[in-house]
Amino acid sequence: MTLHFPLKTISFIAVASVLLTMASCKKDNKSNINNNNNNNNNNGPATPKQIGLYEADSAIYKELAIAVSKIGTLTVDYGLVYDTGSGGMVIDAHGIIPSSMITSGGFNFTGDSTVVDGITITSQVDTIQYGDDANTTEKVYGNLAYAPVIIGDQGSTVTIKRLPFFLYYKALDNHGKLVSPHEFDVMGVSPQYDIVFRNGVYITSPFSYYEPGAGLTKGFKMAALGTNNFTLQPNFVPNVVTLGLTQSDISSAGFTLSPLTYISGNGYVPLQSGTIDYNGKHIAAEFIFDTGTEPYNYIEDRSASTTITLLPNSTPVAVTTSAGFKYDFTTTPNDYLTYVENPSVSKTTISVMSLEFFLNNEYMIDFADNKLGLKNQ
User: Which of 72, 136, 175, 327 has a Cα at 20 to 30 A from 374?
Assistant: First the structure.
C-alpha cells in the first residue's frame, strides 16, 4: 500500500471555511441519498462489517490511513488519509488515468464526461481547501467523478457500487508549491459535503453509501487506537472501523450522543459546542475531533494574544461537550502539543482536537439519525 506523509496536516475542510465564509451553497439534494449499494448478505440477520486501518508514525507525527484497492475496473494500491474532519473520497488522478489526460490546468477530454477503465470523469470542476487556520491552507483542484470503489484490503473490504468522488489533477501546499502525486489523497468519513456541484451532486462520506443490512443502522464506529500500533512503516491494524450500528451502539453502549450540526447545502458537520479549560481560563468553544490533524491541537480563544502560542509542557487541558462528554489531556514535549490562536488572526473560530484524541477514545457517526457519539475507553 502506498502511503504518503503530507507536508502539513491533512485536516478538516468544510467546517471552518463554510462557517466563516458562508459561501453560496445549493440546497440538500435528497436524490443523492444512497441506493442500490447493498454490501451485506440478504439472507438472515445482518452483521456489522469491520475494516482495518494503517497506523504509522513518521517520528514527527502520527498518521491514520485506509486502503482503496479498486476504482472502476482498475486494481489500485493507495492509502488515503482517514479523516473524520471532512467528507468524501479525494484522490489524485496520476496512476489512475492515462498521464496524457492530465495537465496542470485540468483534464484533457471533450464533452460533458468521459469514461476510463470504468471511471466516469465529468466536466464539473471545483477546488477543495484543507487547513486548520489561515496559515495552513492547501488547495486541491479536480473534477467530479463516479466509479464503483472497493474500500479496504487484507481480506476486509466493502464495495460501493457507484460512488461520487473528487478526482484531482494538482494540489498546492500553503505556500502555493505543487506537491507530489497522491500527497493529498483523503478518505473523509464525515457526513458533511466537501463540495456541492451545480447538478446537486455532493461529495460526502463513502461510508454513507454502505447499506449494512436488516436490523442495523447506517453508520460507523471506531475503536480506540491505542499507542502500540503506530510504527515507521505503516502497520495494518484489523477491525478498527465497524460499519453498521447495533441498537446497543446507539442506545446503551456508553456513547455520549449529540446531534450533528446541519448547514444548508453542506450536510451534517461533526461540529461540537462546549467549553475548553486551560491555563486557568474557561472559554466557550466550538470544536471537532479530527483524525486528519496531527501533531497539534488548536484552541481558538477570542481573548488570546494575536500571536500564536504553543502551550507549555505539562499544561492540563479539559474539553467538555454540551452533551457532557469530557476529554482531558496534558501537554508533553512530544505529545498533545497545543496551539492557542486568536480567531482574528487564524480566521477560524473552530478549535480542533487532533488524532491523539482517538488513541484512548471511541468515536461513532449515526448517519440515519445524524448523531455523533463519543466514548471514553
Answer: 136
- Do 204 and 277 fall into the same domain? no
Residues 334-366: tens digit of each pLDDT: 999 999 999 999 888 999 999 999 999 999 999
Alpha helices by DSSP H, listed for the chain, are: 14-21, 343-346
Same domain for 184 and 65:
yes
Cα separation of 98 and 118, whole Å? 13
Q: Which three cell numbers stand for residue 165?
A: 468522488
Looking at residue 40, its pLDDT comes to 55
pLDDT in tens, 124-179: 999 988 876 767 778 999 999 999 999 999 999 999 999 999 999 999 988 889 98
Percent of the chain clearing pLDDT 70 (strictly above): 88
**Does residue 159 sit in helix, strand or coil?**
strand
Q: Which residues, in sequence order, are bridge partners of residue 362?
A: 375
- Does 43 map to a domain? no
Do 219 and 320 fall into the same domain?
A: no
Query: If you ran DSSP here, which 8-state letter would residue 2 be given?
Result: B
Domain count, the chain: 2
Residues 120 and 182 occupy one common structural domain:
yes
Strand order in the sheet with 350-353: 309-310, 337-341, 296-300, 350-353, 281-289, 272-278, 316-321, 326-330
144, 122 Cβ separation under 8 angstroms: yes
Handedness of CA 14, 15, 17, 22 (dihedral sign): positive
Domain that holds residue 277: 267-376
Q: Which of 178, 237, 238, 245 is nearest to 208 (CA)?
A: 245
Per-residue pLDDT of 56-108, as tens digits, reads 998 788 999 999 999 999 999 999 999 999 999 999 999 999 999 999 999 99
In a domain, 311, yes or no: yes
Mean per-residue pLDDT, 108-125: 97
Cα–Cα distance for residue pair 203/193, rounded to 1 Å = 5
Q: Any idea what the CATH number is for the domain that residue 343 is in? A: 2.40.70.10
Q: What would the grid cell of residue 277 be?
A: 479549560
The strand pair at 316-321 and 326-330 is best described as: antiparallel
First to last CA, the chain: 30
How many Cα neighbours within 13 Å face the side chain of 238?
A: 6
Query: Can you tell me which residue has the cell 487547513?
Result: 131
Per-residue cell: 169? 489533477
CA gap 312, 339 in Å, rounded: 10
Q: How far is CA 101 from the centre of its chain?
A: 28
